[in-house]
Amino acid sequence: MSEEEKIPPMSFQQRRMQHILDSRPIAPKKTYRLNKVSPKRAAKIEAQKASGDSILDKWFEARREEMTGKCSLCGGKTEKHNDETYRRSIHHLFDKRRNMFPSIATHEDNWLEVCFFGNSCHTNIHNGTISWSMLRDSAGWSVIVEKFKKVYMYIAEEERRNIPEVFLPYVNGLIK
User: Fold this and answer.
1) What is the model's pLDDT at position 175?
2) In the Cβ-directed half-sphere of 40, how many Cα atoms lie within 13 Å?
3) Does residue 134 register a pLDDT over 80?
4) Could you give the CA distance from residue 80 to residue 95 in angstroms, rounded to a whole number?
5) Residue 123, exposed/middle/buried by CB under 10 A (0-12, 13-18, 19+)?
6) Quick one: average pLDDT of 4-23?
7) DSSP conformation letters of 29-73
8) What is the residue range of 93's domain?
9) Which of 10, 73, 99, 101 is geometrically suited to a Cys-Cys bond with 94, CB 3.0 to 4.6 A?
10) Count of domains forming the chain
11) Does residue 95 fall inside a structural domain?
């Protein structure tokens, strides 16, 4: 057998592809990457860094001074003495994110000291494992109600619709 007989004949598509590859190389694909942080948000973060401590940073520092080192819900150890992770043990009672309660985001009573490691009370509150109804049955409920009563008058009128139902019985005595 000759060499020509060993090579199978090429189809039209194979010949066309070979012609394309021989005469003009395929350009490499451009890769596009999304920014992890938008340019607008990055500028805002830089402005906050340039101005020094933000209001929220100062709020966290003040809450750290009030921390006891003990979880309000389970009695476990919190991160009070750890400079890197102490914020993980400070839980906002009324959400500072998602624009639910921005008027009281930095109110001095809008927080609860909870453990982050161990029983993970902070994480369990955020993922819904610990709900408001479960908190109502906990030992720390009286502290939560007292803090709610102190904070209620500072909640903006349009934000009051976001108050969890478990607090509605306590609202009646607070309205003047």
Assistant:
1) 59
2) 0
3) yes
4) 21
5) middle
6) 77
7) PP-----SS-HHHHHHHHHHHHT-S-HHHHHHHHHHHH--SB-TT
8) 49-171
9) 101
10) 1
11) yes
Amino acid identity for residue 51 in this structure:
S
How many C-beta neighbours within 10 Å does residue 124 have? 17
Residues in the chain: 176
Half-sphere exposure of 78 (CA within 13 A, CB side): 26
Residue 2 is assigned to a structural domain of this protein = no
pLDDT at 176 over 60: no
Tell me the whole-structure pTM to 2 decimals.
0.67
Burial environment of residue 162 by CB neighbours within 10 A (0 to 12, 13 to 18, 19 or more): middle
Q: Has residue 40 been placed in a domain?
A: no
C-alpha span between 64 and 83 (Å, rounded): 10
- Band (55; pLDDT cuts 50, 70, 90): confident
The two most distant CA atoms of the chain are separated, in Å, by: 105
Instruction: Please give the full DSSP string across 72-98, using - where no structure is assigned.
Output: TTT--B-STT-TTTGGGGEE-SS-SST
> Which amino acid, residue 105?
A
Measured distance between the N- and C-terminal CA atoms of the chain, rounded to whole angstroms:
105
For residue 114, give both structure tokens.
């909870």
Q: Within a domain: residue 26?
A: no
